[in-house]
Design a protein that fits this description.
By secondary structure, the chain is mainly beta. The N terminus and C terminus are likely disordered. Strands 1-2-6-5-3 form a 5-stranded antiparallel β-sheet. Strands 18, 20, 22, 23 and 24 form a 5-stranded antiparallel β-sheet that branches. It binds 2-acetamido-2-deoxy-beta-D-glucopyranose (11 copies). One 2-acetamido-2-deoxy-beta-D-glucopyranose binds next to loops. Keywords: Membrane, Signal, Transmembrane, Transmembrane helix.
Length: 654
């Protein structure tokens, strides 16, 4: 009896293992300390897999008890000196499950010590993929990662990128789809690329099979490698399509051209086709509470609470389930019916026991019609307060106003080259200081102050009453984290303490009225723009339209000012990429004398004149600001040390 039971359970198990249980996964790694010391270093290897929940059951109790969901063969090493590697178990601690999608997911990490300057491939191989795939029914799976422990050209050890996804993504059939896979890298300056995984080992980074039976698993799909965007159309309802990608990070453009990545990270997941039928065709949407792709700096001693807010659009449509991919230890509440069309789920996470580093979270809602919402992903950067994490640099745009402003100037703004939002914590201040005595005359906490408005690329500060004194000079400084990136994973902006970074002074009518009036017209100067420049901010220029009056020495202006055109950095690039074309243009340039002159005219004349001159001046100030910033931040200019400071700047991109 016992033997029969034993045999049948063994056969059953075999059946499962060789039938329907794998649903994709990923393997990533990073050094525990990016500064190389001696001939070897400790690396954290992280694996994450999803399974058929009928095979590897998981529920809230399993997660709370840190229960394991079983895997298959151990992760093994090949194609290199495997010094330091010992096989890694593939049973993982369950972190997520979805009843409707019949999926369980889990994660495991392990610390290894590897010698420096070696490369090898670690892979998870077993079988079989299930029946029900467009390509690859009952074939074996391979999930392969290239570990490279070389010291980077900037002197640090590399961290592999990460790919972020939920395990199964529903898409309606016969409708062209664009799906963006999020790539993230702790080394903010790296160039990321994703490519289809390939089976032929002779030609790929892993020197090994990277995708088993699901290579080219989405028929007809096109991949945009620079931003990991998949364009495809599913044609069969109730069939899955396996996606096997490798995400690779490159030190710079030359390395990208030479195809010499610093790591190769697998990301495998499934699309599921459904036909749009029935009374409800509009899937639910995740609408709050943080934007998709937000990046949340998290101290390792905090307790995180996040709310996912979902809206439904059809009568009788309600959120029946969530599918997610979350860090170990994150707890999910039951679904809350906030109203008949708004549903919520609360996530809580005690970060205390989590190692420093990025921890991605992805979720989507599934409704009672089996429609799936958009995918929503955020990344927690655990330990942003740690000296290990180098914070990104904030402003790569320009600030306004600069120069001389009226005493009633109440609106200040600065631009960023990335889409930013309100930071997630309090204590992130912008200070307005009087240059005469360094006294803070105003400060706003960007974490909550209603005076600070985030409009995406421009952040605006509005005073209800202005504290300025005529004739005084002021400067603005900022704490780290006054803005937080959303589409890139900039956990926080870097602090700005330089008192010359953003300077303005208040027009003093008393002083101005004592100067004599002249009628000299505005000077017209030729501005030659060049790709590089040594121009620094000319504080004699003003963006406010107010004349410069006294205190600043009036120097004879050069007839040619050399500036750099503002390169509009695409959200996916770390800095200006195309060198500006040298152009010549003639613009009206106002010099302090002109301002004084203008000031003596009637207010009406002055306004018109100043308005006419304002635009080009603003442009010049922006050029100058950008030039200064470009000098500070351009990847081609910064040395290795500065470069490292930028490393975490942009972790995530679309
Ligand atoms: C690793 O390679 C770098 C660059 O070639 C070299 O400077 C360093 O000494 C090497 N380290 C070890 C432990 O071999
Ligand atoms: C894979 O299996 C499913 C379900 O058995 C079937 O519908 C599909 O046609 C198969 N795909 C291929 C390429 O044979
Ligand atoms: C390897 O890649 C090269 C260039 O990309 C290509 O020409 C060649 O056919 C590939 N070899 C194999 C075996 O795929
Ligand atoms: C991805 O990059 C391509 C160009 O390579 C661009 O046309 C497309 O808009 C980008 N997609 C996203 C979602 O950024
Ligand atoms: C669809 O709508 C029709 C008419 O409003 C109704 O009779 C039917 O029961 C609905 N079907 C479902 C599945 O809700
Ligand atoms: C939420 O609403 C759905 C449908 O209206 C219902 O089935 C479910 O029981 C409700 N849940 C709670 C906790 O009230
Ligand atoms: C988080 O975990 C730590 C360590 O286990 C514990 O000391 C702390 O009380 C926990 N915090 C909360 C809010 O549960
Ligand atoms: C949390 O941060 C503190 C201070 O930075 C550090 O001493 C501690 O080791 C960290 N804990 C973990 C689990 O990383
Ligand atoms: C600020 O003061 C100037 C001159 O005193 C005046 O022209 C302008 O209208 C004022 N602006 C506001 C918003 O009050
Ligand atoms: C931030 O400060 C404001 C005002 O004191 C307070 O209402 C808010 O709850 C604080 N937020 C956090 C996250 O502490
Ligand atoms: C104000 O701070 C700057 C920079 O920190 C310093 O150079 C200057 O001496 C300070 N001025 C006064 C009056 O303390």
């Amino acid at each position: 009896m016992y033997i029969v039971y034993f045999l049948s359970s063994w056969i059953l198990q075999l059946c499962f293992i060789h039938s329907t249980h794998f649903r994709g996964g990923t393997i990533t790694w990073r050094p525990l300390n990016a500064t190389p010391v001696g001939g070897s270093a400790s690396f954290l290897v992280r694996e994450r897999y999803s399974w058929n929940r009928n095979t590897y059951y998981c529920d809230d109790t399993t997660i709370a008890n840190k229960g394991l969901i079983s895997g298959g063969n151990d992760v093994a090493c090949t194609a290199g000196p495997c010094t330091g590697w010992s096989n890694m178990l593939t049973s993982t601690y369950c972190t997520d499950f979805s009843d409707r999608l019949t999926v369980s997911s889990g994660e495991r990490t392990q610390v290894y010590t590897f010698p420096l300057n070696i490369s090898f491939t670690i892979y998870f191989y077993d079988g079989n993929w299930f029946n029900g795939l467009e390509v690859g029914n009952s074939t074996t799976w391979y999930v392969s990662n290239r570990v490279i422990t070389n010291v980077r050209p900037d002197g640090y050890l590399n961290t592999s990128p990460i790919g972020v996804t939920i395990p199964i993504i529903y898409k309606p059939i016969n409708i062209p789809q664009v799906h963006v896979v999020q790539m993230a890298d702790f080394d903010g300056t790296d160039i990321l690329r994703c490519r289809w995984s390939t089976r032929i080992s002779a030609n790929n980074t892993c020197h090994y099979n990277e995708c088993g039976g699901i290579c080219s698993g989405v028929p007809g799909a096109v991949l945009l490698e620079n931003n990991c965007t998949i364009v495809f159309t599913l044609t069969h309802a109730k069939l899955y399509a396996g996606v096997a990608l490798q995400i690779e990070d490159f030190f710079n453009k030359a390395a990208l051209t030479a195809n010499t990545p610093m790591s190769s990270v697998p990301l495998q997941f499934l699309f599921y086709g459904y036909s749009v039928t029935g009374n409800c065709t509009k899937p639910p949407q995740i609408i709050g509470n943080r934007p998709n792709r937000a990046c949340i700096g998290t101290s390792n001693s905090t307790f995180v609470t996040e709310t996912i807010v979902v809206e439904t659009y059809c009568p009788g449509q309600y959120v029946a389930d969530f599918v997610s991919s979350s860090p170990i230890g994150m707890r999910k509440s039951a679904i809350i019916n906030a109203s008949s069309t708004i549903f919520q789920m609360i996530l809580t996470w005690n970060v205390s026991n989590t190692l420093h580093g990025p921890e991605p979270l992805c979720a989507a809602a599934v409704d009672n019609f089996q429609l799936q919402s958009n995918q929503w992903c955020v990344t927690f950067v655990v330990g942003y307060d740690s000296p290990d994490v180098i914070r990104p640099t904030l402003v790569q745009g320009s600030a306004s106003p600069v120069g001389t402003v009226f005493q009633n100037q109440s609106v200040f703004s600065f631009q960023t080259t990335k889409f930013v939002g309100r930071p997630s914590r309090n204590g992130t201040n912008i200070y307005f200081k009087d240059a005469a005595n360094n006294v803070t005359v105003a400060q706003f906490d960007c974490g909550w102050a209603p005076e600070v408005t985030f409009t995406g690329y421009t952040t605006v500060i509005r005073f209800t009453t202005t504290p300025w004194q005529a004739g005084h000079f002021y400067y603005i400084t900022m704490d780290g984290g006054v803005v937080s990136g959303t589409e890139f994973c900039g956990p926080e902006s870097a602090p700005i303490r330089d008192p010359t970074y953003w300077v303005f002074n208040i027009w003093d009518p008393a002083v101005s009225s004592t100067t004599t009036t002249t009628t000299t017209p505005f000077t017209t100067a030729t501005v030659t723009t060049k790709p590089t420049s040594t121009t620094s901010i000319n504080t004699l220029l003003t963006t406010s339209g107010i004349v410069v009056t006294t205190t600043t020495p009036i120097t004879t202006p050069p007839t040619t000012s050399t500036t750099t055109p503002p390169t509009t950095a695409a959200p996916t690039t770390a800095g200006p990429t195309t060198p500006g074309v040298t152009t010549e243009s003639t613009v009206a340039v106002m010099y302090p004398k002109d301002f004084k002159d203008a000031c003596k005219s009637s207010v009406a004349t002055m306004t018109a004149v100043i308005l006419a001159a304002l635009a080009p001046i603003h442009t010049i100030v922006m050029y100058a600001t950008l030039t200064k910033l470009e000098k500070m931040f351009s990847p081609s200019r910064v040395n290795a040390g500065t470069r490292h400071k930028l490393r975490t700047k942009r972790i995530m991109r679309s």
